[in-house]
Amino acid sequence: MQATVEQLSKIRIFGDLEPSELEGLQPFSQVQHYQQGEILMQEGDRLPAKLYSLLMGSLRVTKTAPAGKETILRTLLAGEIFAAPAIFGNGIAPATVTAEDNCQILTVQRDGLVDAIRQNPEIALQMLSVFNQRLQRLHNTVHGLVSERAIVRLAQFIQYFAAHYGTEITPEGQQLKVKLSYYQIARSIGITYEECVRLFKTIQSVVTYSRGGKITVLDSEALEAITSGKN
User: N or C: which end of the chain has fewer CB atoms below 10 A?
Assistant: First the structure.
């Protein structure tokens, strides 16, 4: 199914385009539906030359070690792009992408995207900004695994999602808009499920975790102190 102008406008890198520019992308676009748990692409798959973006739902991006341990590289929410090698690299999926819930994926063929970039180079700058942020986060993650305590990595992980995806004010505190399971968090910061549960218990006066993956920051200053390694 071809994407509508409204759907295209929901992808962050296209957010500043004029309706006429979005209309130019429509013939090159397609929207596909995936069910919860369905694998969109497997690590090592050859990918068509397209821009991949998430229109609705959330995605889990993972890599699996030879020993079988799965590491979550990132969680993607609506509006984000992914699978960069399909456009810029060798066309091989660098990781496995799985639908965490029912999703809509919007793709744009490379030729159409290149034409749009020629007319509006800002699109390319937006894409570079996204990938630069991800490289920086990957660097911070690797550095943290080597040099930071697990409690610090957990606090930094919570702060990242609060800043990147936003929070909602509740009577208890600032609740993250994105829901994260213990499994996701543990696999993202390099600890076990059991250790993740234990760490949340040790900081329950600062951050609470409730059913459904709801995380609420009760004390932002105390969380910042943990993040900086002062606690």
Answer: N
